[in-house]
Amino acid sequence: TPTRPIVKNPEEKDALITCIVQNQGDFTLMWKKTSKIPNRDATVLSANTHMVTSDKRMQVMHATGGQVYVLKITNVTVFDAGIYFCEVNTDPPIRAFRELTVLRRQYRKVQKLPLPSSD
What we know:
By secondary structure, the chain is mainly beta. 0% of the residues lie in helices and 44% in strands. It is built from no helices and 9 strands. A hairpin with a 2-residue loop joins strand 4 (43-47) and strand 5 (50-51). It is elongated, with a radius of gyration of 20 Å. The relative contact order is 0.31.
């Protein structure tokens, strides 16, 4: 099982998941999401900076010619939790895994106080 650095993110905040690629050349970097490893059920999210997913909360940030790709997910929910990985389509593919854990927002129960009587 590959090492999976964990990205912990509060619910309703933005998550930034980073991938560094050296000597990419003409190969394509894809962001994928899976619920487990091995990744037989992986969903393709993007190819380079072009989004494949219809989820408008996701985008890939990358400077042309740069080595860093960042998958940004705005307003994360518990449903975004899982294993994300970047994959370069070499033979064999090169992959880097990141696990996104979404911390549930804590709500405090507000105690209702009785209103003062108007006697």
